[in-house]
Design goal:
about 350 residues; alpha/beta; TIM Barrel; 8-stranded parallel β-barrel; two-stranded antiparallel ribbon; 13 helices; binds flavin mononucleotide
Length: about 350
Protein backbone atom coordinates (compact mmCIF):
# COMPACT_ATOMS: atom_id res chain seq x y z
CA UNK A 1 0.00 0.00 0.00
CA UNK A 2 2.83 2.40 0.82
CA UNK A 3 5.20 0.98 -1.75
CA UNK A 4 6.96 4.31 -2.50
CA UNK A 5 7.80 4.71 1.17
CA UNK A 6 8.91 1.14 1.60
CA UNK A 7 11.16 0.96 -1.44
CA UNK A 8 14.94 1.08 -1.11
CA UNK A 9 16.65 4.13 -2.52
CA UNK A 10 20.09 5.54 -3.13
CA UNK A 11 20.91 9.03 -1.86
CA UNK A 12 24.51 10.03 -2.59
CA UNK A 13 26.60 7.28 -1.04
CA UNK A 14 23.78 5.95 1.15
CA UNK A 15 21.83 2.84 0.15
CA UNK A 16 18.68 3.20 2.21
CA UNK A 17 16.36 0.28 2.81
CA UNK A 18 13.27 2.49 2.79
CA UNK A 19 12.46 6.14 2.12
CA UNK A 20 11.48 6.48 5.79
CA UNK A 21 13.71 8.60 8.02
CA UNK A 22 13.63 8.90 11.78
CA UNK A 23 13.40 12.61 12.69
CA UNK A 24 15.91 13.83 15.28
CA UNK A 25 14.44 13.65 18.80
CA UNK A 26 16.14 14.85 21.96
CA UNK A 27 15.81 12.30 24.69
CA UNK A 28 17.09 14.23 27.71
CA UNK A 29 18.29 11.18 29.61
CA UNK A 30 20.48 9.66 26.96
CA UNK A 31 23.83 9.80 28.64
CA UNK A 32 25.87 10.33 31.78
CA UNK A 33 26.99 13.74 33.12
CA UNK A 34 29.98 13.70 30.75
CA UNK A 35 27.70 13.44 27.71
CA UNK A 36 28.63 9.81 27.00
CA UNK A 37 25.89 7.52 25.69
CA UNK A 38 25.18 4.14 27.26
CA UNK A 39 23.70 0.72 26.40
CA UNK A 40 20.12 2.05 26.57
CA UNK A 41 20.94 4.37 23.67
CA UNK A 42 22.43 1.48 21.70
CA UNK A 43 19.23 -0.52 22.20
CA UNK A 44 16.98 2.45 21.30
CA UNK A 45 18.58 3.05 17.88
CA UNK A 46 19.18 -0.64 17.18
CA UNK A 47 15.46 -1.25 17.59
CA UNK A 48 14.59 1.40 14.96
CA UNK A 49 17.23 0.01 12.57
CA UNK A 50 15.87 -3.50 13.11
CA UNK A 51 12.40 -2.22 12.20
CA UNK A 52 13.70 -1.12 8.78
CA UNK A 53 13.95 2.68 9.07
CA UNK A 54 15.97 3.83 6.04
CA UNK A 55 17.80 6.76 7.60
CA UNK A 56 18.12 7.36 11.34
CA UNK A 57 18.90 10.93 12.35
CA UNK A 58 20.03 10.97 15.97
CA UNK A 59 18.87 13.24 18.73
CA UNK A 60 20.71 16.57 18.87
CA UNK A 61 24.34 16.04 19.96
CA UNK A 62 26.37 18.99 21.16
CA UNK A 63 29.72 19.79 19.53
CA UNK A 64 30.79 21.83 22.58
CA UNK A 65 30.20 21.90 26.36
CA UNK A 66 28.76 25.41 25.87
CA UNK A 67 26.24 24.18 23.30
CA UNK A 68 24.12 22.19 25.74
CA UNK A 69 20.58 23.41 26.45
CA UNK A 70 19.05 20.76 28.70
CA UNK A 71 19.99 17.79 30.84
CA UNK A 72 21.10 14.49 29.36
CA UNK A 73 22.31 15.84 26.01
CA UNK A 74 25.10 13.69 24.60
CA UNK A 75 28.25 15.18 23.10
CA UNK A 76 30.73 14.55 20.32
CA UNK A 77 33.51 16.78 21.60
CA UNK A 78 35.62 14.11 23.34
CA UNK A 79 37.17 10.85 22.15
CA UNK A 80 35.37 9.04 24.95
CA UNK A 81 31.99 10.28 23.65
CA UNK A 82 32.92 9.21 20.10
CA UNK A 83 33.93 5.73 21.33
CA UNK A 84 30.58 5.32 23.07
CA UNK A 85 28.70 6.36 19.90
CA UNK A 86 30.66 3.70 17.99
CA UNK A 87 28.65 1.02 19.79
CA UNK A 88 25.45 2.66 18.53
CA UNK A 89 26.60 2.90 14.91
CA UNK A 90 27.87 -0.70 14.94
CA UNK A 91 24.55 -1.96 16.27
CA UNK A 92 22.65 0.01 13.59
CA UNK A 93 24.97 -1.24 10.83
CA UNK A 94 24.57 -4.83 11.99
CA UNK A 95 20.84 -4.38 11.37
CA UNK A 96 21.53 -2.98 7.89
CA UNK A 97 20.65 0.59 8.89
CA UNK A 98 22.13 4.00 8.14
CA UNK A 99 22.65 6.59 10.89
CA UNK A 100 23.69 10.24 10.87
CA UNK A 101 24.56 12.40 13.88
CA UNK A 102 22.65 15.62 14.38
CA UNK A 103 24.95 18.38 15.68
CA UNK A 104 23.10 20.89 17.86
CA UNK A 105 24.47 24.00 19.57
CA UNK A 106 21.74 25.87 21.45
CA UNK A 107 23.49 29.27 21.55
CA UNK A 108 21.55 31.62 23.83
CA UNK A 109 18.87 29.07 24.79
CA UNK A 110 20.64 27.84 27.91
CA UNK A 111 22.03 28.75 31.33
CA UNK A 112 25.46 28.57 33.05
CA UNK A 113 24.11 25.69 35.19
CA UNK A 114 24.22 23.59 32.00
CA UNK A 115 27.35 24.98 30.35
CA UNK A 116 29.93 24.51 33.10
CA UNK A 117 29.41 28.02 34.49
CA UNK A 118 29.89 29.86 31.16
CA UNK A 119 27.49 32.49 29.83
CA UNK A 120 25.60 31.31 26.74
CA UNK A 121 27.02 32.34 23.35
CA UNK A 122 24.94 34.17 20.74
CA UNK A 123 25.37 36.51 17.76
CA UNK A 124 24.14 39.43 19.92
CA UNK A 125 23.70 39.91 23.64
CA UNK A 126 19.91 39.54 23.59
CA UNK A 127 18.32 37.42 26.27
CA UNK A 128 15.60 34.95 25.24
CA UNK A 129 12.27 35.09 27.04
CA UNK A 130 11.08 32.05 28.89
CA UNK A 131 12.53 29.23 30.95
CA UNK A 132 15.29 26.77 30.17
CA UNK A 133 13.99 23.30 29.29
CA UNK A 134 13.72 21.13 32.46
CA UNK A 135 16.05 23.46 34.45
CA UNK A 136 13.07 25.85 34.74
CA UNK A 137 15.27 28.94 35.27
CA UNK A 138 15.08 32.04 33.02
CA UNK A 139 17.46 31.98 30.05
CA UNK A 140 20.75 33.73 30.93
CA UNK A 141 21.99 36.89 29.19
CA UNK A 142 24.21 35.64 26.36
CA UNK A 143 27.63 36.96 25.36
CA UNK A 144 27.83 38.42 21.86
CA UNK A 145 30.39 36.22 20.14
CA UNK A 146 33.71 37.77 19.16
CA UNK A 147 35.20 36.90 15.77
CA UNK A 148 37.57 34.58 17.64
CA UNK A 149 34.66 32.79 19.32
CA UNK A 150 32.88 32.41 15.97
CA UNK A 151 36.00 30.77 14.55
CA UNK A 152 36.30 28.57 17.65
CA UNK A 153 32.72 27.28 17.31
CA UNK A 154 33.23 26.53 13.59
CA UNK A 155 36.31 24.51 14.58
CA UNK A 156 34.26 22.71 17.27
CA UNK A 157 31.78 21.62 14.60
CA UNK A 158 34.68 20.46 12.43
CA UNK A 159 36.16 18.48 15.33
CA UNK A 160 32.76 16.96 16.16
CA UNK A 161 32.48 15.88 12.50
CA UNK A 162 35.88 14.16 12.80
CA UNK A 163 34.60 12.39 15.89
CA UNK A 164 31.45 11.42 13.96
CA UNK A 165 33.67 9.79 11.33
CA UNK A 166 35.68 8.00 14.05
CA UNK A 167 32.43 6.86 15.65
CA UNK A 168 31.31 5.26 12.38
CA UNK A 169 28.41 7.59 11.57
CA UNK A 170 27.27 7.59 7.94
CA UNK A 171 26.89 11.35 7.94
CA UNK A 172 26.06 14.48 9.88
CA UNK A 173 22.99 16.70 10.05
CA UNK A 174 23.60 20.31 11.06
CA UNK A 175 20.72 21.63 13.15
CA UNK A 176 20.23 25.14 11.83
CA UNK A 177 16.55 25.29 12.82
CA UNK A 178 14.17 26.01 15.72
CA UNK A 179 15.84 29.17 17.08
CA UNK A 180 19.16 27.61 18.15
CA UNK A 181 22.66 29.05 17.57
CA UNK A 182 22.87 28.88 13.76
CA UNK A 183 19.25 30.05 13.48
CA UNK A 184 20.04 32.89 15.93
CA UNK A 185 22.63 34.06 13.40
CA UNK A 186 20.15 33.59 10.53
CA UNK A 187 17.34 35.64 12.06
CA UNK A 188 17.08 39.43 12.06
CA UNK A 189 15.39 39.19 15.50
CA UNK A 190 18.40 37.67 17.27
CA UNK A 191 21.25 38.87 15.07
CA UNK A 192 21.94 42.61 15.38
CA UNK A 193 25.56 42.42 14.33
CA UNK A 194 27.01 45.07 12.06
CA UNK A 195 30.03 43.03 10.93
CA UNK A 196 30.14 40.48 8.08
CA UNK A 197 28.11 37.95 10.15
CA UNK A 198 25.14 40.28 10.38
CA UNK A 199 24.79 42.40 7.28
CA UNK A 200 21.62 41.44 5.43
CA UNK A 201 20.44 37.90 4.71
CA UNK A 202 23.74 36.93 3.11
CA UNK A 203 25.74 38.05 6.13
CA UNK A 204 23.38 36.32 8.56
CA UNK A 205 23.92 33.03 6.70
CA UNK A 206 27.71 33.31 6.66
CA UNK A 207 28.06 31.38 9.96
CA UNK A 208 25.89 28.57 8.53
CA UNK A 209 28.02 28.47 5.38
CA UNK A 210 31.29 28.35 7.31
CA UNK A 211 30.04 25.44 9.42
CA UNK A 212 28.72 23.54 6.40
CA UNK A 213 31.96 24.06 4.48
CA UNK A 214 34.08 22.91 7.44
CA UNK A 215 31.93 19.87 8.26
CA UNK A 216 31.43 18.95 4.58
CA UNK A 217 35.20 18.89 4.09
CA UNK A 218 35.45 16.26 6.84
CA UNK A 219 32.36 14.11 6.26
CA UNK A 220 31.81 14.64 2.51
CA UNK A 221 29.14 16.89 1.03
CA UNK A 222 26.97 13.93 -0.03
CA UNK A 223 26.81 12.82 3.63
CA UNK A 224 25.80 16.19 5.01
CA UNK A 225 22.23 17.34 5.76
CA UNK A 226 21.12 20.86 6.70
CA UNK A 227 17.97 21.55 8.73
CA UNK A 228 16.40 25.02 8.81
CA UNK A 229 12.98 26.36 9.77
CA UNK A 230 10.74 29.34 10.23
CA UNK A 231 9.75 27.70 13.52
CA UNK A 232 11.59 28.95 16.63
CA UNK A 233 11.18 27.06 19.90
CA UNK A 234 11.36 30.23 22.04
CA UNK A 235 9.37 32.52 19.69
CA UNK A 236 6.08 30.72 18.96
CA UNK A 237 4.58 33.69 17.08
CA UNK A 238 7.59 34.34 14.85
CA UNK A 239 6.87 34.33 11.11
CA UNK A 240 9.13 35.04 8.13
CA UNK A 241 8.11 38.39 6.66
CA UNK A 242 9.17 37.26 3.18
CA UNK A 243 9.10 33.44 3.13
CA UNK A 244 10.23 33.03 -0.48
CA UNK A 245 13.19 35.38 -0.05
CA UNK A 246 14.22 33.62 3.18
CA UNK A 247 14.03 30.21 1.53
CA UNK A 248 15.90 31.39 -1.55
CA UNK A 249 18.68 32.77 0.63
CA UNK A 250 19.03 29.33 2.27
CA UNK A 251 19.05 27.62 -1.12
CA UNK A 252 21.65 29.98 -2.50
CA UNK A 253 23.89 29.51 0.56
CA UNK A 254 23.44 25.73 0.30
CA UNK A 255 24.38 25.71 -3.38
CA UNK A 256 27.40 27.92 -2.77
CA UNK A 257 28.89 25.39 -0.35
CA UNK A 258 27.90 22.40 -2.50
CA UNK A 259 25.30 20.94 -0.12
CA UNK A 260 23.06 18.19 -1.58
CA UNK A 261 20.55 17.27 1.14
CA UNK A 262 18.07 19.61 2.87
CA UNK A 263 15.69 18.85 5.72
CA UNK A 264 13.46 21.93 6.18
CA UNK A 265 11.48 21.65 9.41
CA UNK A 266 7.83 22.43 10.07
CA UNK A 267 5.23 20.86 12.33
CA UNK A 268 2.58 21.18 9.61
CA UNK A 269 3.85 19.72 6.36
CA UNK A 270 0.60 20.38 4.47
CA UNK A 271 0.18 24.01 5.60
CA UNK A 272 0.75 26.60 2.82
CA UNK A 273 3.05 29.41 3.94
CA UNK A 274 3.26 31.62 0.85
CA UNK A 275 1.36 31.89 -2.45
CA UNK A 276 -0.60 28.74 -1.59
CA UNK A 277 2.58 26.66 -1.41
CA UNK A 278 3.94 24.73 1.55
CA UNK A 279 7.47 25.05 2.92
CA UNK A 280 8.61 21.94 1.07
CA UNK A 281 6.88 22.94 -2.19
CA UNK A 282 8.61 26.32 -2.05
CA UNK A 283 11.97 24.63 -1.52
CA UNK A 284 11.31 22.08 -4.29
CA UNK A 285 10.51 24.88 -6.76
CA UNK A 286 14.19 25.82 -6.77
CA UNK A 287 16.02 22.80 -5.34
CA UNK A 288 16.77 19.68 -7.32
CA UNK A 289 18.92 18.11 -4.60
CA UNK A 290 17.58 15.66 -2.05
CA UNK A 291 14.71 16.95 0.08
CA UNK A 292 13.51 15.40 3.34
CA UNK A 293 9.90 16.06 4.35
CA UNK A 294 8.71 16.21 7.97
CA UNK A 295 5.99 17.62 10.19
CA UNK A 296 2.80 15.80 10.99
CA UNK A 297 3.23 13.44 8.04
CA UNK A 298 1.12 10.30 7.86
CA UNK A 299 2.09 7.32 5.72
CA UNK A 300 -0.43 8.42 3.08
CA UNK A 301 0.52 12.12 2.99
CA UNK A 302 4.19 11.06 2.86
CA UNK A 303 3.45 8.68 -0.03
CA UNK A 304 1.61 11.45 -1.93
CA UNK A 305 4.49 13.87 -1.41
CA UNK A 306 7.03 11.33 -2.66
CA UNK A 307 4.83 10.34 -5.63
CA UNK A 308 4.38 13.97 -6.68
CA UNK A 309 8.13 14.57 -6.43
CA UNK A 310 7.94 17.18 -3.65
CA UNK A 311 10.18 15.15 -1.31
CA UNK A 312 12.59 12.23 -1.62
CA UNK A 313 12.52 10.94 1.95
CA UNK A 314 9.84 11.24 4.64
CA UNK A 315 10.89 11.81 8.25
CA UNK A 316 8.64 10.82 11.12
CA UNK A 317 9.16 11.82 14.74
CA UNK A 318 6.26 11.25 17.14
CA UNK A 319 4.77 8.35 15.11
CA UNK A 320 8.02 6.45 15.66
CA UNK A 321 7.74 6.95 19.41
CA UNK A 322 4.18 5.65 19.41
CA UNK A 323 5.12 2.81 17.03
CA UNK A 324 8.65 1.48 17.52
CA UNK A 325 7.60 -1.13 14.91
CA UNK A 326 6.39 1.56 12.47
CA UNK A 327 7.85 0.03 9.30
CA UNK A 328 6.58 -3.44 10.18
CA UNK A 329 3.10 -2.01 10.69
CA UNK A 330 3.17 -0.36 7.25
CA UNK A 331 4.39 -3.59 5.63
CA UNK A 332 1.75 -5.76 7.26
CA UNK A 333 -1.15 -3.28 7.19
CA UNK A 334 -1.43 -3.18 10.98
CA UNK A 335 -3.01 0.09 12.18
CA UNK A 336 -0.73 2.69 13.75
CA UNK A 337 -1.04 3.69 17.39
CA UNK A 338 -1.68 7.46 17.69
CA UNK A 339 0.85 9.49 19.60
CA UNK A 340 0.09 10.51 23.16
CA UNK A 341 2.94 12.40 24.85
CA UNK A 342 1.89 11.23 28.31
CA UNK A 343 2.37 7.64 27.22
CA UNK A 344 4.88 7.70 24.42
CA UNK A 345 7.67 9.92 25.64
CA UNK A 346 8.78 6.82 27.53
CA UNK A 347 9.81 5.38 24.14
CA UNK A 348 12.66 7.86 24.16
CA UNK A 349 14.22 5.40 26.60
C1 LIG B 1 10.43 14.60 21.89
C2 LIG B 1 10.91 15.38 20.69
C3 LIG B 1 12.24 15.80 20.64
C4 LIG B 1 12.72 16.52 19.52
N1 LIG B 1 14.05 16.86 19.46
C5 LIG B 1 14.56 17.43 18.32
C6 LIG B 1 15.98 17.60 18.15
O1 LIG B 1 16.82 17.23 18.99
N2 LIG B 1 16.41 18.18 17.00
C7 LIG B 1 15.53 18.59 16.02
O2 LIG B 1 15.97 19.12 15.00
N3 LIG B 1 14.19 18.41 16.15
C8 LIG B 1 13.70 17.81 17.26
N4 LIG B 1 12.35 17.54 17.34
C9 LIG B 1 11.47 17.82 16.19
C10 LIG B 1 11.32 16.55 15.31
O3 LIG B 1 12.54 16.23 14.68
C11 LIG B 1 10.23 16.70 14.23
O4 LIG B 1 10.61 17.72 13.35
C12 LIG B 1 8.86 17.02 14.80
O5 LIG B 1 8.53 16.12 15.87
C13 LIG B 1 7.76 16.95 13.72
O6 LIG B 1 7.66 15.64 13.19
P1 LIG B 1 6.44 14.64 13.63
O7 LIG B 1 5.16 15.41 13.39
O8 LIG B 1 6.58 13.46 12.73
O9 LIG B 1 6.64 14.32 15.08
C14 LIG B 1 11.84 16.85 18.46
C15 LIG B 1 10.49 16.43 18.53
C16 LIG B 1 10.04 15.69 19.61
C17 LIG B 1 8.59 15.22 19.63
Amino acid sequence: MYSELLQPTRIGSWHLRTRIAMAPMTRGFACDAKGTVDEAVVAYYQRRAHDGIGLIITEGITPSPRGKGTFGVPGLFTKEQANAWRKVTEAVHEEGGTIVAQLWHVGRLTHPDLTGGHAPLAPSSLRAEGLVHRLRKPYAIPEAMTLGEIREVVLQYEQAARHAVDAGFDGVEIHGAHGYLIDQFASEITNRRTDCYGTGRTGRLLFMKEILAAVGEVIGMDRLIYRFSELKDDLPDYRWLEPEEEINAYLEASREVGLRVLHPSTNTFLQPISGGLTLHELVRKRWDGTLIGVGGLSPSSATDAIQSGVIDLAAFGRPLLANPDFVQRLRTGMPLVSYDSAIHLKHLL
